[in-house]
Queue: 3 jobs
Job 1
Amino acid sequence: MRRLLVVVAVSSALGVAVPAHADPATNASFINAVTKAGIKFSDDQSAIKAGKTVCALMDLWQAEPDVVNEVTEQNPNIRPDKAELFTVIARTTYCPQYLPPGQ
């Protein structure tokens, strides 16, 4: 049941969050950072969607370790250490309001 609620909440949050961050330059910067980090997705749009999902989860007050776990669960080809890095890249690119103060 918890899983279903998370999926519904993320879907709802993405519906609101995606248009605000649909800037092609931002997306290109994100893809560049993910690629340089050695994180692979089947295509750029999947990576962008996953990155924006990170922010949607944070919008729901999910703690970063929980978000990293969700990234790992939803993307089984990404190791936990890469999921953590992916979460940082996504947060920095798409939702910097969740960066620690001073960064």
Note: Confidence is low (pLDDT under 50) at residues 1-21.
Job 2
Amino acid sequence: MAPPPAPKPTVPFPDAVTTKKGDACVEVVLTAKHGTPASVVVVTALPFACYGQTLNSGDLGNFGAGAAEGLKQTFEITGAVQGGYTLGSHAVWIERAKGTPKGHPENPFTFEIACTVLAKGAVCWMTMAADAASLQAFEKAPVTLDGERSTALVPANAFLHNSL
């Protein structure tokens, strides 16, 4: 008579070992906060190896709009303005809007999201700027995209209407 089969090992957190798909592939690669009220910068990446497909510059509008849509869950967003520009050989989609945390209209912020496609993934830089100095610091931050260095993430001509 054969011995009974050995029990299968159990994993205490099975969701932690399942394969990521779609939006679950998005990684937060940087979060920074400064000041009172706090201005925040978040950089997210979507590695194509995880996502299962590549994006191109024609996908930037939908990709960026999806990133911006997520803000509406927590913030009242108004006056959104989109633009586009290039940094080296990379097309960049950008959106700027005003907003306040839901239920706290006394705390106004300027939101800005800039997204591009790199060789191995897509990336978005997002800020929730409490003041003009924080917004300028975000926009003037140097970036390197696939080895191409740019002196500023957001050039002065990124928006047709700089009314915000």
Note: The radius of gyration is 20 Å.
Job 3
Amino acid sequence: MPSAPERIYRVSVDVPPAYLDRLMDAIDAAMTPVYPGYRRSFTYYPVTGTWIPLPGSHPFDGRTSDISKSAEIRLEFVVKETELTAVLRAIDTAHPYEEPVVDVTRELAWRSLLTDPSP
């Protein structure tokens, strides 16, 4: 009986451009490669973030009660389920924001979809 494919997750995180390489290095150090033969496999693209820091917050950028807008980079990658917690801790440690935007979504390992039981 074939084994079930390993569970993987897509993680997206917005980061100031100056911190992109630092964050990729921290994430890569916290995980093993998902794609055989490749490390530091990421996709990133420009986005604009907007937020209003509430009283009591300590924003990296912006002032309390003012609308803030900033150029950011959305970084995306996949990680094995067994390493997800370690990667999220690495993001929390390396990211400059008090509350970074992090999205985690379950993914299908695409090669697992190519399994053909017929000879």
Note: The chain has two helices and four strands.
